[in-house]
UniProtKB/TrEMBL annotation:
Domain of life: Bacteria
GO function term, MF aspect, one: DNA-binding transcription factor activity
Protein name per the record: Glutamine synthetase repressor
Record keyword tRNA processing present: no
DNA sequence: TTTCTCACA
DNA sequence: TGTGAGGA
């Protein structure tokens, strides 16, 4: 699943293509970059190159704008998103707490119990 | 031709 | 946010 992520983050689209894909003006696209809502890369000629992820981000921004959210508000949304990401990363570094261990063990038991005839038929019916 | 930066009769 | 200038 990493190959796909790499492709989506490959900056290969010039601003003209992005304009058509997002229906945004070049002015707007550049302005959003100034507001650090998107961070396109630059090629050897100082031209902005966008990735598919950037396209998604721009479309998302457009949606927020339609919902009446201003630049400041959108910035806050992404700040929140980054803050939560940082939290997840930090959580991955920590050793498991007792509560985590208990939760994992419980899930293990549930999984084993899930092999009973009753749940097998349930799974079967659910999938078809 | 397309995109860049800068600035505002 | 639009638009035009002047350059690459």
């Amino acid at each position: 699943m990493k190959e796909k992520e790499l492709r989506r983050s490959q900056a290969v689209l010039p601003i003209g293509t992005v304009m058509k894909l997002t229906k945004l003006s070049a002015r707007q696209i550049r302005y959003y970059e100034e507001q650090e809502l998107v961070k396109p890369q630059r090629n050897e000629g100082n031209r902005r190159m966008y990735s598919l992820n950037d396209i998604d981000r721009l479309l998302e921004i457009k949606d927020y704008l339609d919902e009446g959210i201003n630049m400041a508000g959108i910035k806050h949304i992404y700040e929140e998103k980054e803050r939560k990401q940082a939290e997840k990363q930090a959580q991955l570094q920590k050793p498991l707490t007792d509560a985590d261990v208990r939760r994992i063990l419980r899930d293990e038991f549930m999984s084993i119990g899930g092999l009973s005839k009753q749940s097998l038929s349930f799974k079967h019916n659910r999938n078809f």
